[in-house]
Amino acid sequence: MKVTHTKLKEVYIIEPDVFQDDRGFFMESYHALKLEPYGIIHSFVQDNHSLSVQTGTLRGLHYQLAPQAQAKLVRVVAGAIYDVAVDIRPGSATFGQWIGVELSASNKRQLLIPHGFAHGFCTLAPDTEVLYKVDAYYAPDLDRGIIWNDPVINIAWPVQSPIMSEKDQKHPLLCTAELPNVNGVFHAPTDAGSEGERL
After folding, report:
1. What's the rounded mean pLDDT across residues 151-161?
2. Which of 2, 81, 171, 182 is most buried, judging by how many CB atoms fall within 10 Å of its CB?
3. Is residue 29 a contact partner of residue 20, using CB atoms and an 8 Å limit?
4. Catalytic residue numbers?
């Protein structure tokens, strides 16, 4: 299992070992003990599975507030996505910065997104299925979001006019969003800088 650090602390790209023969392949998609040396220690409690029928479907940017903040381990079992994590931790040296990683059924990459990050993805192929583990249950009252095209974050999405839910189209800007904080809720300053990286 290959684990690659990214420029955003605690965000990792994980590539399982894949064993292939004429029958197909086998892999361990998750192995807690092999991830522990990298500080990846989570007690996942829920698996989510989404299907996006059309290319250019965008979901996000999503996160939950404490005490139900969620870490996510994301992978694709059909199709492909451009998967994005945004640092929304107040006081973080990389606050407002993002990374984007292509995950697909063929490359079998996974993205580990820790607490304190917003998450979203855009599909790159039709009939894309995404699986992700979370370490806290869905809590509607703590569910929050940031608008996908926030000009401060400035994510380089691979689509200009995405297919989105009505809910995701109404998320606030980073500068007015409720953000995670150890002491409760923090409202981001309007001059928060950002930069991104596509991997």
Report:
1. 97
2. 81
3. no
4. 62, 132
pLDDT for the residue numbered 187: 45
Q: Could you tell me which residues are beta bridge partners of residue 84? A: 100, 120
Rounded to whole angstroms, the Cα distance separating 41 from 19 reads 25
Per residue in 29-78, pLDDT tens? 999 999 999 999 999 999 999 999 999 999 999 999 999 999 999 999 99
Cβ-contact 7, 99 below 8 angstroms: yes
Count of other CB atoms within 10 angstroms of residue 171: 20
CA dist., res. 130 & res. 187, Å (int): 31
Strand partners, 25: 20
pTM of the predicted model as reported, rounded to 2 decimal places: 0.90
Q: 199: closest CA among 91, 85, 53?
A: 85
CA distances (Å), 59 to each of 19, 90, 109, in order?
A: 32, 23, 19
Identity of the amino acid at 166 = E
